[in-house]
Amino acid sequence: MRIGELARACGVDVETVRYYEKQGLLPAAHRTPNGYRLFGPQHAERLAFIRHCRALDMPLAEIRHLIEVADHPDADCGDVNALIDTQLDKVRERIKAMQALEHQLVALRSRCDSQRAVEACGILNELMAVSRTVR
C-alpha cells in the first residue's frame, strides 16, 4: 500500500508516517521504480504499536527502545519492565498534580456559591487578590 493508504488504515496523517520513518521507528519502505514508497502489513503493525505506545504517553525515545528490545525476542524483558515502571511513576506524579489542581479548583469554587454581581464574585476576587501578590 502507498503512504496515504497506510496513514488512512492506521488513523494517522501522512506527515506522521513520514516522521516516524525518518526517525527510524518505521522500517524503510520499498521504493517502486517511479519513486513511490510501498508499505506492507509489517509497517501497519509497527505503526499500530507506535500509536498504542503514544496513547500510553510514551516518548518516542522509549518507543524506540521498546522496538529495539522487541527485535531481539530472546533478550531479557527487564528493560521493558523498568521502562513501564518509569512510565507508571510519571503517570502517578501527574495524577498527584491533577488532584492538587482539583483541590485548588474546589476551594476556589467554594468562594462563590450563588449568583452575585461580578464585583462580589468570590472566585474573581480571590484570583485577583492572588494576582496582586505576584508583583
UniProtKB/TrEMBL annotation:
Domain of life: Bacteria
UniProt keyword Plastid present: no
Family annotation (InterPro entries): CadR-PbrR, DNA-bd_dom_put_sf, MerR-type_HTH_dom, MerR_fam, Tscrpt_reg_MerR_DNA-bd
GO biological process: positive regulation of DNA-templated transcription
Coiled coil regions, renumbered to chain: none
Listed Pfam families: MerR, MerR-DNA-bind
UniProt xrefs under SMART domains: HTH_MERR
CDD domains xrefs: HTH_CadR-PbrR
GO MF, one example: metal ion binding
Transcription keyword on record: yes
Name of the featured protein: Cd(II)/Pb(II)-responsive transcriptional regulator
Organism listed in the record: Denitromonas iodatirespirans
Underlying gene: cadR
